[in-house]
Amino acid sequence: MNEEKKQTALVVASSKAVQPASVKRSYWSRAAGLYSHAFRVLLIALALFLVLFTVLNFRVFSYENLFYFFKDLQALSSHGTASDTTIFYNYEGERSTVLSFGGGIAFVSEQGVEIYAADGERLLDAEQPFAQPRAVASRKYVLVFDGGGKSFAVCNAHAKLHRSETEHPILAAAVSDSGHFALITSSDEALSQVLLYDSNFNLIQRFSRASATVGVDVSPNGKWIALLGATEQDGNVATLLDVYRIGSVNASGSARLAGEFPLALSFTNSSSMAVLTDTSVRVFDADGDERNAHLLNGAIPVAFEASEEGILLALETDRLSASYRVLAFNKRGKITLDAAHTGDITDLALTKDDAFLLGADTLTRLSLKDGTAQTLPCEKGATGCFAVSGDRVRVTYPAKAQVYTFDPS
After folding, report:
1. Residue 351 resides in a domain
2. How many Å apart are CA 207 and CA 185, to the nearest integer?
3. What is the pLDDT confidence band of residue 85, given thresholds at 50, 70 and 90?
4. Number of domains in the chain
5. Residue 334 lies in a domain
6. For residue 166, what pLDDT is reported?
7. CA 397: distance to chain centroid?
8. Spatial separation of the C-alpha atoms in residues 198 and 180, rounded to whole Å
């Protein structure tokens, strides 16, 4: 077969040419196309957001902030791997305070501040003399001050960030995760005053109070400040609560509790706070509206804690028999535990599932689910306790902080 015949044999004769026909796209095909376009739009929006965020917040991206960020990651890593480690610190003098901080502890003494990671590594040793060392802490900052003195300092886990003095003696303080902090001081012009500082350590507001301010707290997001004081009403004492949006000179909400003496104040989230008086425990919102109230019916408050985990309160019902009533509330003030306890209570701690009670030589866990109790012996001489997890509690002593472990619940 010659070449021409081969080509003829391989080519099939075609009929009349047919125009191409469109194929109708299925529902899933159309949906995939729409999602593809939406994905591109979101990528563009994300890129624009990152550019604007970087331009508007360029000060955040400093060497110092990045350094502390990675150091904090390292501290959190040690918290996850060494939470059973006993931490020893340099105990000197009779006046000291131990706080839970960053998974480890902050130890404040007459010589200054020491901060330890969960594995016992000392992260900070900042020398600063205090005649009466006092301290408060958030998750990110420790505020140390001289009780009745004028000096104070702000630290994170790795450095002393700021040190200064006030014009009048400092009586109490509070610090927020946002970096805002407040100091209650005496005053020549008013019964008391509260000084509010921003995260750059600038004094941004001064509250001159006609009441004796006994408590202050700043919301975790740095938007609200709450002031708790004692005032006079009809010849009797009354509790006065004022809440301000930071930067505003007018209170966003106020509450007055006649016949009640104020004891403690603490935010439980960014817009709710717990107030303890000698006759009640109450939860208010940022507008000063009461959400829940529980009367103590003559029982005496001996220990109190309020945080983002909720509220925990120990009430003495009979001193001779060392009988107590233990109440736990969620962040909105609903009761989650009401239990009787026999034996001294020197401190307490709360998690989302359990309450812990520290006695003279015992440590008790109460389940919030069913009220069951488990007790462990501990060394005498404990000064405080705080929860590490649902099964572990760190108990502080004059020279160490030791972890006690319960059976898994």
Report:
1. yes
2. 10
3. confident
4. 1
5. yes
6. 97
7. 23
8. 4
Name the phi and psi angles at 71, rounded to 5. Answer: -65, -40
Cβ proximity of 393 and 376 under 8 Å? no
Cα–chain-centroid distance for residue 368?
21
pLDDT of residue 209: 94
- The token pair at 79 is 């918290």
Q: Which pair of tokens denotes residue 348?
A: 């307490």
- The dihedrals phi and psi of 23, each to the nearest 5 degrees, come to -105, 125
CATH number at residue 315: 2.40.10
Structure tokens at 211: 């009441």
Mean pLDDT calculated for residue range 288-314: 96
- Residue 368 inside a domain? The answer is yes
- Has residue 14 been placed in a domain? no
Alpha-carbon gap, residue 263 to 275, rounded angstroms: 8
Q: What DSSP state is assigned to residue 58?
A: G
The residue segments making up the domain with residue 347 are: 310-409
Q: Which of 292, 177, 271 is nearest to 226 (CA)?
A: 271
The whole model's pTM is what? 0.80
> Judging by beta carbons within 10 Å of its beta carbon (0-12, 13-18, 19+), is residue 131 exposed, middle or buried?
exposed
The torsion region of residue 338 among left (phi > 0), alpha (psi -120 to 50) and beta comes to: beta
- A 10 A CB-CB count for 58 gives 9
The answer to whether the beta carbons of residues 176 and 137 sit under 8 Å apart is no
Across all residues in the chain, what is the average pLDDT? Answer: 87
CA distance 142 to 150: 17
H or E element, residue 48: helix 27-56
Nearest alpha-carbon partner for 171 in 128, 92, 98, 230 = 230
Structure tokens at 183: 């100091």
Distance CA 304, CA 349 (A): 9
